[in-house]
Design a protein that fits this description.
Blueprint: H1 5-19, E1 34-38, E2 41-45, H2 56-73, H3 79-90, E3 95-102, E4 105-111, E5 119-124, E6 130-134, E7 146-153, E8 159-166, E9 173-178, E10 202-204, E11 210-215, E12 233-238, E13 249-253, E14 267-272, E15 278-285, E16 288-299, H4 300-304, E17 311-314, E18 320-326, E19 329-334, E20 342-347, E21 357-360, E22 366-372, E23 376-383, E24 386-395, E25 398-399, E26 403-405, E27 416-417, E28 425-431, E29 434-441, E30 449-450, E31 464-472, E32 478-486, E33 497-500, H5 518-522, E34 526-530, H6 540-544, H7 552-567, E35 576-581, H8 584-594, E36 601-605, H9 624-627, H10 633-642, E37 656-662, H11 670-683, E38 690-695, H12 706-723
Parallel strand pairs: 33-34, 33-35, 35-36, 36-37, 37-38
Antiparallel strand pairs: 1-2, 3-4, 4-5, 5-6, 7-8, 8-9, 10-11, 11-12, 12-13, 14-15, 15-16, 16-17, 18-19, 19-20, 20-21, 22-23, 23-24, 24-25, 24-26, 27-28, 28-29, 29-30, 31-32, 32-34
Length: 734
């Protein structure tokens, strides 16, 4: 709906005010009620007009909102010193991620002290000599930083395929670099989207000259936005041919093989394993490999010729979340009849998952990941956030008994890198107050060794500590809660505390070191992390207990953790804030709707908030499996209950709220966050501010620079300390 001139004039005075002196009140969003009847339930939406594509009134209102927000945040006296401390902390550590072993090299992304973006490196496993391969800054346009979204080395390590995008759009261009010469191979294929940690879109074939890659369809000018992730295919590309990808042979996916049913919203991926004579076609959901609908296998020779012959290995009912291979044997991580996961195996010559070999049965621990090396199967599992790695050696055609890999200290493994053609494993280890260390394990060595990939942090951590506790939710369920603070903190109910929660997709916020939090902690603040249902702390059962009609369990678990912090005198409602990002917007938005009295402030970071409408965004259809659909009555009721925007109440005394969005966000539409801000501003009867912060050269946080991340955290922490009454963070007269 296009706003009328009369409605536009309602905003104009506030635009003028925002451009000059600071406004006493935020710019008012025009109200144009739209009522939709869902199965007999009328729902009125006052800000549906914000959903209009390329809406100039929305852009103007958001700009005025951002100016208004900056007029407060920039007037906080303590912000500059806090930002300086955050910069110092984050530049005292090195951030390394996504290690991959290939051709005797380790490939990884790293942000070193003094660097602003993650760069792509390779490091020889024997000599330890490192080499810079890709610096995304060379692709950056003025005002729009670039990022490497994903990378995949060829099996011999001579090439790397990688994706680079600008401004956090995640709209990556696929390129290839020669690792020996640094020469760009002239490949520029668009619409190849993904990320190493959730959906690697490129996989090399054993000739090391060709690869399979996932590509999204090209939308026409009249195609609906919801088709963005639909009709994907995996293609075959050979270096030296079709540099733009046009003319590449489709291998797998929508409409490729009539005998293989592929849904509109299923993502099609072809993966390979070094040393295996098979390639794998995977149909997944939500551009992630943790929800696999079907797995097919084809002899690698046919795939390389562009004529694969696929045989189904697993279906949706097999509940597979990860695969790897060793020779003709495929290993599968499954939660079928095993909510804490088990590892199954079957022979690819005659796959039979109706009668699989159970390689690692379910136990009290949650199996997170496994990797195949030349010598053994390595399995990473957790118990209450603490990791364990076990090694199952290959002895001919059989697998030996599991033996623990002795870890250097108690912590959490976030990455486990193996290669079926190489011995041993590389893994990371960290904790809430212990920075990441990359360790290498070789069979026969007995102990792990520090690889020195990640240099020691220089930030002082000697007086920081953490503890793991449990809060009791409304139905008696015990909810894990991590608490990080200075040792000796007095539990007198007067500690500035930020409670963070997520709780979707079976994903966790596991124990890990976050350098930018150190100044907050040294200032006397507490960081707490809730692990509610909907996440994966206790496996797939924990995830499913926070989905769809059960989504309010996530919200109530988060509230229970907040209440625990108050009841046990870590803090009080006057010094407690809740935060949720992305799908965590449902969590924190629901918490302030149900218990506005429990929080002094809340942070919605690029958050899902309007669940009745997000289904109709480009990223909406892939999320139906997690949240539900308004196209069914049951789905509507689940979404109606969980939607923070829909449940904001007029006249409620809401806490102070700051909401962050980026105009390039491809995952949560900026209008979704804008609608929540407008609704809260109109509804709240408290005198506490509701602020909307808009970034114009970033998006969902993925691909943001260190500087952007530090600035946003300085804004957030300053806002919270202001609301907690810290004298050093009270804005100058406004």
């Amino acid at each position: 709906m296009i706003p009328s001139l009369k409605a536009w004039l309602r905003i104009a005075p506030f635009l003028i005010c925002a451009a000059g002196a600071r406004a006493a009140l935020p710019p008012v969003a025009m109200v144009q009620p739209v009522t939709t009847n869902y199965y007999g339930t009328p729902v009125t939406d006052n800000y549906r007009w914000m959903e209009t594509p390329d809406s100039k009134p929305l852009a103007a209102w958001m700009k005025a909102q951002n100016d208004y927000t900056r007029s407060f945040l920039d007037a906080i006296p303590g912000r500059a010193a806090l930002l300086q401390a955050i910069d110092q902390a984050t530049n005292s550590t090195t951030e390394t991620s996504a290690p991959i072993r290939a051709g005797g090299e380790i490939f990884y992304a790293q942000i070193a002290p003094g660097q602003n973006t993650a760069k792509l490196y390779m490091r020889n496993e024997i000599t330890g000599k490192a080499k810079l391969l890709i610096d995304p800054d060379t692709f950056a346009d003025a005002g729009a930083p670039a990022a490497v979204n994903y990378f995949q080395p060829s099996q011999d390590g001579n090439y790397v395929a990688y994706g680079v995008s600008a401004g956090g759009t995640e709209a990556a261009m696929l390129r290839v670099v020669d690792t020996k010469t640094g020469q760009d191979m002239g490949v520029t294929i668009d619409r190849v989207q993904g990320a190493n940690d959730e959906f690697p879109p490129v996989w090399w074939l054993p000739d090391n000259k060709s690869f399979a890659y996932y590509r999204m369809q090209k939308l026409g000018p009249n195609d609906p936005a919801t088709g963005f992730f639909e009709k994907s295919r995996a293609y075959l590309h050979t270096l030296g041919a079709n540099p733009l990808g046009d003319g590449d042979t489709p291998l797998f996916g929508y409409g490729v093989d009539p005998s293989i049913p592929v849904g509109l919203d299923q993502d099609a991926l072809v993966t390979t394993v070094p040393g295996s004579d098979y390639a794998f076609g995977e149909l997944t959901e939500n551009e992630g490999t943790d929800t696999v609908d079907a797995i097919y296998a084809a002899p690698i020779a046919g795939v390389m010729a562009g004529k694969p012959v696929w045989t189904q290995v697993a279906g949706k009912d097999d509940d597979i979340t990860q695969i790897d291979a060793h020779g003709s044997q495929i290993f599968l991580l499954s939660y079928r009849n095993a909510p804490r996961f088990q590892i199954l195996a079957t022979d690819l010559a005659a796959p039979d998952l109706a009668h699989p070999t159970v390689v690692v049965p379910q136990s009290d621990q949650v199996i997170k990941f496994f990797g195949v090396a030349r010598d053994a199967l390595y399995v990473d599992s957790t118990d209450g956030g603490t990791s364990e790695i076990v090694r199952l050696p290959f002895t001919g055609a059989s697998i030996g008994a599991p033996r623990p890999v002795i870890l250097p200290y108690s912590g959490t493994v976030h990455a486990l890198a193996t290669n079926p053609t190489a011995l041993g494993a590389i893994y990371t280890l960290e904790a809430w107050v212990k920075p990441t260390v990359f360790f290498g394990y070789m069979p026969g060595a007995g102990t792990s060794h520090n690889t020195d990939i990640e240099p020691p942090a220089t930030v002082y951590l000697g007086d920081l500590t953490s503890r793991e506790v449990e809060a009791t939710s409304y139905d008696g369920t015990l909810v894990p809660l991590s608490i990080v603070m200075k040792a000796g903190t007095v539990l007198d109910g007067h500690n500035p505390t930020l409670l963070i929660g997520y709780g979707s997709y079976g994903l966790e916020i596991p124990p890990h070191f976050i350098a930018e939090f150190v100044p907050w902690l040294q200032h006397g603040g507490i960081i707490a992390v809730s692990h509610p249902r909907g996440g994966g702390w206790f496996g797939e059962g924990w995830h499913q207990a926070g989905m769809k009609l059960k989504k309010l369990n996530t919200v109530f678990d988060f509230i229970a953790c907040a209440q625990y912090l108050v009841d046990h005198h870590y803090t009080s409602p006057s010094e407690l804030a809740g935060e949720g990002g992305s799908a965590g917007g449902i969590t924190v938005g629901g918490a302030i709707n149900w218990r506005p009295d429990l929080f002094a402030a809340a942070v919605d970071s690029h958050g899902e908030t309007d669940e009745l409408r997000s289904e109709f965004t480009p990223n909406g259809p892939p999320n139906i499996v997690e949240f539900g659909s308004v196209t069914t009555e049951e789905g509507f009721h689940g979404l109606y209950l969980m939607s923070p925007y829909t449940n904001v109440r007029d006249g409620e005394k809401y806490p102070a709220v700051i909401l962050f969005t980026g105009v390039n966000d491809p995952r949560v539409e900026p209008w979704e966050v804008a609608k929540m801000a407008a609704r809260l501003q109109a509804a709240t009867s408290s005198s506490k501010p509701v602020l909307l912060s808009v970034s114009y050269d970033s998006s969902h946080g993925i691909g943001s620079t260190k500087e952007q991340d530090n600035d946003e955290w300085a804004d957030e922490a300053s806002f919270l300390l202001w609301q907690f009454g810290d004298p050093a963070f009270q804005p100058k007269q406004h």
